[in-house]
Amino acid sequence: MANNLVIVESPTKVKAIKKFLGSRYEVMASGGHVRDLPKSQMGFDPEHDFEPKYITIRGKGDVLAALRKAVKKADKIYLATDPDREGEAIAWHLQQALKLNEQKDKQVYRITFNEITKNAVKEAIRHPRQINMNMVDAQQARRILDRMVGYKISPLLWAKIKRGLSAGRVQSAALRIIADREKQINDFIPEEYWTLEAVLGVKGEKKPVTASFYGTDKKLQIRSKQEADRIMSELESERFEVRGVKKSERVRKAPLPFTTSTLQQEASRVLNFSTQKTMRVAQQLYEGIELKGEGTVGLITYLRTDSTRISDEADAAAKEYIRKTWGDRYVTGTAARVKTGQNIQDAHEAIRPSDITREPMNIKDQMSRDQFRLYQLIWRRFAASRMEGARYETTSVSIGAGRYVFKVSASRILFEGYQVVYTESDENKESNVLSGNLSEDSELTLQKFNPEQHFTQPPAHYTEASLVKTLEELGIGRPSTYAPTITTLLYRRYIIKEQRNLYLTELGEAVNNMMKEAFPQVIDVNFTANLEQLLDYVGDGRMDWKEIVRNIYPDLDKAVAEAEKKLEKVTIADEVTDVRCDLCGRNMVVKYGPHGKFLACPGFPECKNTKPYLEKAGVKCPKCGHEIIIRRTKKGRRFYGCENPECDFMSWQKPSEVRCPKCGGCMVEKGNKLVCASGNCGYILNRQDQPENSEKKEPEENYD
């Protein structure tokens, strides 16, 4: 009869762990959290030192009843929830809910395992410990700070913008980052520049060499066509000659194994997975896949980590596998690099296969397509991390013509190293553009010039991958929060995703502007990152969790009171229009919906009439003279289009009625500038300097 009880989080782990431990162990699942702060109230008492009020989560009564029954029969209880702060907190909540501290005749232990394998589980049973209250307190502090921000600020968003909105400690800072990038893009002024290539014949070689303009003794940027023409004119009478050939070797180091952040980034770029999908599939791989002849097997280590550390056993096993598969020279001879930094939590290993010999192709038919692709990515990255770097021979040729210098660069691979198994998505393809040997004796003849006009590009829109990278670099959130944060922003429709890019919606802009106005500290990137550091101090036992809450609550309370006064007269939604309701005759009001603004009857719920809101931009169409309307894509991204259905005018930036003095084309607003929309013109005009003879004065706007 089983006299040992092991409690895990997920029901999918039960079968595998039961198999590893045998009949003397009963294994049951809590299904995640069993207690939480009540949804109907703040959930902690500021008058009594912020003591939390936990209640049993609805629907968990039967789970707890079954666990209590099992506890009565057991002599030893092992709390085997996940090996992170959240898991430690769940273990503590189970201890409280099951009153395990009061069970004097029973031994209660906390165990963790980084992978669901027989060795890892048995090793955990052999080395039990007590619940780490520092980790629990760090999680309690995080939960209460999140609740404090959400429950204090969200009602103001409900009142002033739209019901059902939410603010969050990490979520609002992330929204601010996206909004700031959107402003940078909208205000970006392109600058013209030119590249110049010289196509050179080499005596004795069939193929010409293409050399890129460098400058003189220092690098020069060609700013205009006139400059390019002047340089080409000067060079026509000059003799081209090889002035230097430099050969060297370069090593591209093997990548580090995956952390949560780098896995999310690479899965997004390579597999086009959302952060949420990556975590869901990784969870399946961690909890176990049914394999023929083996039963349920956990294929990867724990998926929430910011450490790149690997256990000695896993390192040795990987190197032995590489030695047998590819040979000694592919095994790295240097000590493995480990990513370090003040925000790194080194509680457990990087994400890796639980067994390097379990090759992806050998078990492909026993997994779903998504599981296979993600497992293969993790397996290849880990194998690569234990291998030698790739070595290249690089050749740099300096070609002179008078006072000007052109450059030719080429490289060829000498030893592929880790690239036999893995190529990072951001690696530049190595090129070998030299068809023959160039030396200082080579005779060159100019065949032609290839001048090309370019314009500088604005910063790229955030993708899920680049946002995760930025959040990690700034120290905002932790591995477990990246995916839920982005998912919440998309769900609330503060942002939308189109072709991988993240765009701020009108609703997101309204929320961010209000947060900037009323709660600048909450969305301040440095404040949010510093708070994460303080929570780490709590987890390390260097700080009392209530100290953080005591310091932040009064300031937040004061900010909310001031915001309520400041925003009393602010009405973002419910702007009354002169459009009459077709059904009841009332003046319709502007509301925010999932896709932006729309018109609704104020008589709701008696009258449920709604209409599209055709918001005029206040300018005429540069093509046909009709009104310009602010429109939205299907997903909610804003653009400017003509009200005339037969006109195809469209612009992401607001058009101006001022015509370009240089080419006569349409100009668009970018901050305090007007910029020609023609890709080949690039004319820029300060808005205060716009011609007085423009048909109509620009409407005044706030360009904060």
Total DSSP E strands: 30
Shape: flat
- Cα(first) to Cα(last) distance is 72 Å
Secondary structure category: alpha+beta
So how many helices? 16
Average pLDDT: 88
In this structure, how is the largest beta sheet organized?
6 strands, antiparallel
Q: Order of strands in the sheet with the most strands? A: 11-14-15-10-9-16
Gyration radius, in Å: 31 Å
- Name the beta content range: 15-25%
Helix content: 25-40%
| Regions with little confidence, pLDDT below 50 for 5+ residues | 692-704
Structure overview:
By secondary structure, the chain is α+β, with helices and mostly antiparallel strands. It is 33% helix and 23% strand. It contains 16 helices and 30 strands. A six-stranded antiparallel sheet has the order 11-14-15-10-9-16, covered by helices on one side. Strands 2-1-7-8 form a four-stranded parallel sheet, with helices on both faces. A four-stranded antiparallel sheet has the order 19-20-21-22, with no helix packed on it. A hairpin with a 5-residue loop joins strand 4 and strand 5 (51-52). The longest helix has 28 residues, at 133-160.
